[in-house]
Amino acid sequence: MLAYTELTPEAPPITAVRPPDNWPTKGEIVLNKMSLIYPGTTEPVLKGACTDDAMSDGVVLLASC
């Protein structure tokens, strides 16, 4: 994990390019008993994930091609 702290940032956090004025200011993802099964397996690696308004959740999934 420490190796990621030494990477060069890809872009500055704020640039001159800005979204249009009507761009949404808030987004939402709602999970209701979500499960995730990787291809070629039968056991879920994520079981019954739920979110609600009182929670701030983070889910990090690794993807490879």
Protein model, in words:
This protein is low in regular secondary structure and 65 residues long. Helices cover 0% and strands 11% of the residues. The protein is built from no helices and two strands. The chain has strands spanning 34-36, 46-49. Strands 1-2 form a two-stranded antiparallel ribbon. The radius of gyration is 17 Å and the shape is extended. The two termini are 21 Å apart. The mean pLDDT is 79.
Which helices and strands occur, and which strands form pairs?
Layout: E1 34-36, E2 46-49
Antiparallel strand pairs: 1-2
- List how many beta strands DSSP finds: 2
- Sheet with the most strands, sense and barrel status: 2 strands, antiparallel
Shape: extended
Across the major sheet, the strand order is: 1-2
Could you say which structural class the secondary elements and strand pairing correspond to? little secondary structure
Beta-strand percent range: 5-15%
Distance between the termini: 21 Å
Radius of gyration: 17 Å
H/I helix tally:
0
Unreliable stretches: none
Short description:
This protein is 0% helix and 11% strand. It has no helices and 2 strands.
Keywords:
65 residues; little secondary structure; two-stranded antiparallel sheet; 0% helix; extended
